[in-house]
Structure formats: C-alpha cells, structure tokens
C-alpha cells in the first residue's frame, strides 16, 4: 500500500523522471537501545545523504525525520470541579498513540510538509494518534483530549516537534540528534526519514530500533508480568530477609 | 555520583537513587522515633516525587512487611503477642484486604483510584494529625503545670465499660489478653484495617492500636506486638494481591526504600530516647498535618494540567 502510494505520488509529482531517481540513503547511530538500571536516556543520530538528480533544477528538498515508539491504546481523562474538588469526570479512549514520538525537520513544518501529505502519511503527532472509535462515537471534544495527551507527553520529554533541527548541508547531507528520555517503554521503535519537495514526500526510508530492558530490569519486568505470584513471593522474601538482616546486623554492631 | 538515576522497572520512571534512599531514611527515622509504621507518610511522599499512585500503594505494602518483621520477632521473643487475638484480627484483615483490592481495581477501571487514595489520606491524616496535636499540646500544658508546683492530675486509665461489646454473641477466651469477648468486634477491626491496607498502602497500626485499647480493652503491653503480627500477614497478602492483579509491586523501588528505611529506623530509635516525648509527638503531628495540607491543596486548587493519561490493561 505504502509502495503504491509512494509510486503514485512520485508519478504525479515527477512525471518526467524515474521514480527511483530521487533517493535517500540513511542510517542510525544505533539500532538497539538497552535499558538497564542505570539507563539515563540516550541519543540517536539519524544521518544520510540525498542522491541528486542530474541535469534538473528543482525547488529545494527538505528532510523530515520521525522516531516513533510502539503504538498503544490509552485513556485520556479530564478533570473538572465537583463539590469543590478536582475529579476526573470525562474520559476518551484513544485507539493508538505512540509511547514516544519525535519529529525533526530541516525547515518550518508548514514549509516542509503540506496538510494533505501530513494527512496521507500521519507525520505530525496530531495525525499520528488514532482515535477512530472516539470520533465515531461522536465525542466532540476528542481533539481537546488528543491535544492534552500531546501536552502531557511533551512535558515528559516523550513527544517533540523540532522544526529546523535537521542539519541539511548543500541539499545533499543531513543529520539530526534525537533525544530518547530515560522513561522509555520497551518495544519496536521506528525511525522514518521523509524527503520532501514543495511539501510533498518524494522519497522515504524506514529503519527499526529495538528498545529492550536488559539484565536485572529485564528479569524483574518479565517475572512480574509472566509469573506474578512467584514475583510477589520473591518480593516478600527479599523484604523479610532485608528487615531481619538489618536488625541482626545492628544488634551485632552494638554487641 | 549524587545525580545517580535509577530506572524503576515496574513504575517505568527514572528516579534519583539517593532521593529514594533519603526518603526511606527520613521516614525510617520518624518510624524509629515514634514507633509508627511510616507507611502513611511514605505513600503520599512517593506520590509527590512522581511514582504512579497504584505502584506507590502496592510497593509500600511490600516495604511494611520488611519494616515490621524484626519488630514481630522481638515481640514474639518477649511473648508480648496475643496469637489467638492476632489470628482473629488477621482473618478479618484478609477479608478486608480482599474487599479493598476489589474496590481499588473497580475504581482504577473508572479512573477514580487516585482520587480515592488521596481522599482517604486527607481524611485520615487530617483527623489523626489534629488529634495528636491537641493531645500533645495538652500533655505539654499538664507537664508545665506539674513543674509549676501544682499537684499532678491523676493519670487517666482506659475505661473498660464496653456495654454493647459485652452483649455480642460468639464469645471466645483470649488468655494472653485476659479477655472473654465476642469475636465480632476484633473481626470488624481487622476488616477495616485490611481495607485501609489495600487502598492506602499502610499497615493500619494507627487505627488498630487505639481500637485494641479502647474498643477491645486489651492490655497495653500486648497491643503493639499483636498489631504488628496482624499487619505483617495482611500487608504480605495485600502485596501478593497487587502483584497478581495489577502488576504494580516494584521490587527495585522497595529495596531502595528498605535500605534507607532500616538504617533510618535504627537512628530514629537512638534519637527517640534522647528527646522529650511530648515535643516528639507535636513534631510528628505537624508533619502529618503538613502532608495532609499538601494533598488537600492539590485536590482543591485547579491543576495546571486538567488532562491525565491512563493506559488500560497496563499498570
């Protein structure tokens, strides 16, 4: 589907050129992020080159880079005042929202991407978050809830739109640093690079990033979710051993 | 070194390890000084540093098991535990914890569990903080009057007129406490403490100890040991229920709080013997009221962010 769309858009936009003529080559500084107990966040460099089309002069190209975490359903709730205190009163179920979503561009977004192309490819956070059921159910304020979700995740460093953050040299080389915060959720992340001309995507590139808890973190998380009773018993055993051990130690120290 | 962040695998947030050790230590000092469990202070403090309330409540239950364990052993050695009464309280406690988890999980699905936990804290901390404050002010005034030359007022003894308690059926003999009473009041006390343990992540000693003295009429010397005996089993059961239904017990968080807590408790015990009891109690009352005030303030003032995110199925 995506290939067909891409071919279509290229065919419409560049009728004279071969669809393969305008290409990007890109890579990531790392394709694996390991979350251990000392994980304090990470940074991924997305970089690459744009192959020029010989003999043609065009409007300048722009580069958009996105890094997306796994899509998860979430419920967004809104508080309002009830009997003097602030209480969750309304909720909207969002079908799928990325746990992390970073967009970086080489030019202001309005210049690098048209609204139609954004709708087609779901590039901005507002478009990326899917809330079909809520919209169909007729929740008028769904957009307010989506904006709320984006605001909260921006404050947590999980979402960002960084216009102009992609360094584009001579219309040929690009690179951008994407910060991954410490509060990452594990799963398959995707890095997308879109090459645009006059706001239309002319080429794209996708790579996955594997984010995993490792070592102790991995063990605790897996045990807690797959063998919860064993995990609970181990937690209790550690607690009892620590409580008893500490008092024994202090008694011994004091003689 | 001092900025060392640690990633908590269940809470899925990064927190400064020394902040957690420090919190554990500070609450440990207080619990050592005052002989209280400290759960009722630790859980709201965990909310304040950004631990999800469901994780804070479940993990604190686990930590209480650790901090009560050495205490129970000491009381068992001194034979100051009424095992029969403890078992009756425990049966009630297990039922209460089960009910509490049902309520907790139901409200979690409704998105109201934060509100429930916070409201419970505001009410209980407010009432207990005020009572303690008034009581210890009175004690200081009496002490002053005594040193000023007046005759010391006769110490008040807990009254033993338990008309309606004595009239209840299903009587049982509790030899260690020297009581022959109905099992219904201790069962009910156990149930209410169990509900609180599940919802608030507390041991519930602050409710149980007064209830045992004034309602059941138990002798003071077995009260603390018996309540610890009940608390350790009820909080262990609560930990297992949270671990198996909500996956919210964070081992890493529990261990960091524990290390701070056990060290703090030893320091607190030493400090407690050097300071005056009334002043200590006023201090504790003020801390309790301050935490209550902060929680109430957050509920009453319009929050900066009206929206919040909850992921269904996850934690």
* Overall pLDDT of chain B: 83
Low-pLDDT segments, ≥5 res of chain A: 4-21
Name the shape of chain A in a single word: globular
Count of the domains of chain B: 1
Taken together, the total number of domains of chain A comes to 2
The oligomerization state is heterodimer
Just give the CATH class of the largest domain in chain A. Answer: Mainly Beta
Q: What about the largest sheet of chain B?
A: 2 strands, antiparallel
Binned, the helix content of chain A reads 25-40%
Query: What is the straight-line distance between the termini of chain A?
Result: 76 Å
Largest sheet of chain A: 6 strands, mixed
Count of helical stretches of chain A: 8
Can you give a write-up of this model?
The complex is a heterodimer of chains A (255) and B (315). With 255 residues, chain A is an alpha+beta fold. Chain A has two domains: 2-213, Sandwich (Immunoglobulin-like); 214-255. In chain A, 33% of the residues lie in helices and 39% in strands. Chain A has eight helices and twelve strands. In chain A, the strands form three sheets. Chain A has a six-stranded mixed sheet. Chain A is globular. Residues 4-21 of chain A have low confidence and may be disordered. By secondary structure, chain B is mainly alpha-helical. Chain B has one domain (18-145, 177-300). In chain B, 70% of the residues lie in helices and 6% in strands. Chain B is built from eleven helices and five strands; from the N terminus they run ββααααααββαααααβ. In chain B, α2 runs antiparallel to α3 (53-77), α3 crosses α10 (251-274) and α4 (83-110) crosses α7. The interface between A and B is large, with 59 and 56 residues.
In short:
The complex is a heterodimer of chains A (about 260) and B (about 325). By secondary structure, chain A is an alpha+beta fold.
